[in-house]
Amino acid sequence: MRAMLPNSRCRCDCACGTRGVVTHRYTVRKGLSRSCGCLQVGNHRTHGEAAGEIWTPEYRAWVNMNTRCHNPRATRFKNWGGRGITVHPEWRHDYAAFLAHVGRRPTPHHSLDRYPNCDGNYEPGNVRWATAKEQAANRRPR
């Protein structure tokens, strides 16, 4: 910890060399904050898809896909990872590989969809950008 700031925050230096990272003091004290974000899967600093607090729609889709499939604490994990749905190993830790395969979202009305197999994994040949109408037609039976 370097300097105390208002609202129980402090400035820290990360082991990667980033200086002046602002975080809550309790996260440092409890060991919850271990890096500036450089240790997170898909570090956005390397691909430029998340400048500051603004994520591109494609990067947000990639993060959400990984979260719902691989984070048991995610609110909707039971509907994806809990059913055994996973992310292709090459995409799991490499946003650039994911983006190279699926490309940019065609319009703001498109979101990520598993197609043609709605019960399949997020993998090459089973992912597309789809409209809400296309996704509704691709739902699993209740």
Description:
It is a single chain. Strand 1 and strand 2 (9-12) form a beta hairpin. This protein is α+β, with helices and mostly antiparallel strands and 142 residues long. Helix content is 26%, strand content 16%.
Which strand-content bin applies to the residues? 15-25%
Low-confidence spans: pLDDT under 50, at least 5 residues?
none
Q: Report, as a whole number of angstroms, the end-to-end distance.
A: 52 Å
Q: How many DSSP H or I helices?
A: 5
The secondary-structure class comes to: alpha+beta
- Overall structural domain count: 2
- Integer-rounded radius of gyration: 18 Å
How would you sum up the global shape?
elongated
Mean pLDDT: 82
The counted number of beta strands is 7
Q: What is the topology, as strand order, of the major beta sheet?
A: 1-2-3
Provide the succession of SSEs: EEEHEEHHHEEH
**Largest sheet, strands/sense/barrel:** 3 strands, antiparallel
Give the oligomeric state of the chains in this entry, treating copies of one chain as homo and distinct chains as hetero.
Answer: single chain
Level of helix content?
25-40%
Comma- or semicolon-separated keywords:
single chain, 5 helices, three-stranded antiparallel β-sheet, 2 domains, elongated, two-stranded antiparallel ribbon, alpha+beta, 142 residues, 7 strands, 16% strand
Helix and strand arrangement:
Blueprint (H helix, E strand, L loop, with lengths): L2 E3 L3 E4 L8 E4 H5 L20 E2 L2 E2 L1 H14 L18 H4 L2 H8 L8 E4 L12 E4 L1 H6 L5
Quick structural gist:
With 142 residues, this protein is α+β, with helices and mostly antiparallel strands.
